[in-house]
Amino acid sequence: MCHVIVTCRSMLWTLLSIVVAFAELIAFMSADWLIGKAKPPSSEDGDNRTGGSQEPYHPTLGIYGRCTRISHMQLSRRDTLCGPYAENFSEIASGFWQATAIFLAMGIMILCTVAFVSVFTMCVQSIMKKSIFNVCGLLQGIAGLFLILGLILYPAGWGCQKARNYCGSYASAYKLGDCSLGWAFYTAIGGTVLTFICAVFSAQAEIATSSDKVQEEIEEGKNLICLL
């Protein structure tokens, strides 16, 4: 018989697991890992004729994508164009970034799997006599290690030609040059920290769903058990 067990700790762990998976996925897909040096607007830009703003703009570069500004002279406006610069995996700008993409993708796949499974932990608490919370916590720890490896290797690729085009000739491995780090990099770091917090907190979720109070509710014949 399926018993639906909901506790504050198990629900919090589920929500954090989902948030972490989405945060890492969004960061990985974003082009805002590096913010390039400021580029002045083109002298041919339509704003010159209309008296518009002449503020410089900052192109951004991700692991496999980028954002830059294009001009529409006939329409006197400028748009920011974002998209992948690499049509396939081999065209990613650096071997280090290729390794980063692999490690991050593996970590994110595990996190998304755990996030999906975590939704069903309310009614399924064990798999083959193993606590599903402990299994998921172990997987989150492994995912966290993959994310750390990816984030460590990522700065080693700052010396590639693509990064130097955005960050200047002084950019090199672990040296940003004229670039600055974008929100996607910090989101990936924050998500990695939360991944390990989730891995540790999974033990608390397991304790909460197997407590004496829960067992008493089960013995009373209740199928829906909600505890603080």
TrEMBL record:
GO biological process: single fertilization
Chief location: membrane
Encoding gene, per UniProt annotation: Lhfpl2
Residue ranges crossing the lipid bilayer per the database entry: 12-35, 96-120, 132-154, 183-203
InterPro entries: LHFPL
Record protein name field: LHPL2 protein
UniProt subcellular location: Membrane
Coiled coil: none
Similarity section: Belongs to the LHFP family.
Organism of origin: Dasyornis broadbenti
Bilayer disposition of the protein: Multi-pass membrane protein
Entry superkingdom: Eukaryota
